Structure prediction request, 336 residues.
Amino acid sequence: MQRVAKALGTDPYHIRYTDGPGGAGLQSARLIPVAGGFGGGAPTADGTPEFEFSKNPRAAEAFDALSNIDPNLDVTGTLAAYRDSSDIGAYLNELEAKNKVDDMKTTFRKNLMNPPTEEQLGVLPGYVNNENGEAVPVYDQKELLEHYRSAYRMAVLERQGSIELDHSNWKIKSIGNTKLTPEQFVEEIRNRYQSAFADGVDIADKRLASGERPIGEEVPLELQRGILADRSAQKQLRDYLNSINVPEGPGQLIALNRWAYYQDGSGLHGQPDVLIDAGIAHRHILDGKATDFEDLTPPMRKQLERYYDFGADSVGGVTQRGHASISSKKPQGRRR
Prediction:
């Protein structure tokens, strides 16, 4: 069975599979929207469709454009901050990475900010002996580049008023007008999303039981339950975020149902329901499922586990009955 990803109508949540010449069947899976690209991956051994992430063939070009934007033209800093979501540092050699670090320091100065020091960013050097036998510090430029990009993004968020930074270490001190700590904010979002998702499942069940088919007759009911519950939960989250003066969207502290990119710069991406990105070592993903955890299929579990490939420090599955942490099956790469 050959899998071909194709959006159905204007709804981005479905994949159509072709089953032999001229045959087509709609399966309960989810398409991550791609502009001009197709999903990849083969079915599992038992013939069930495998959850896989789509590749956007234009992602690299788009992010290259964002990385080269003139800071003087990017008034809000949003585009420069959004560029942080893909770590192209993995493809740079040390000299190129050092040049990028210097560029980031220049960007800070152009925006009337003193760039943080390596010590403030928490990046520790290694040491080598110079020609005189003296130990001199040497930094991993790729690691340094990642931290400088994150620090600049934090500075942009502080300027827009959604966070308060501790400039001694460039970490978030408080979030929103309620002055939540990052840990409190994550817990608040997790609890609110789970509660709203549970309410959304109840609402979806009543609509479907009455004979409504909001997303079409051909779409499996279990898939419709999850989509409707997530839409309801995200509306409640947006209302809460507006009330505490924390914007939602690309480059912001929190993004709902938007693209998240693999940290290897490959252009592969997924679309988690909730992404909280509060800087280095504070990146969290939540994804809603309209089923109990013990009933999750292997492809669903794999989808949740693979969110760690986006650089997440924690991944959680949310159902009508609660929240469960998903453990990573492999090392998370360079992120610290």
Observations:
- The longest strand covers residues 283-288.
- Residues 1-67, 73-91, 331-336 have pLDDT under 50 and may be disordered.
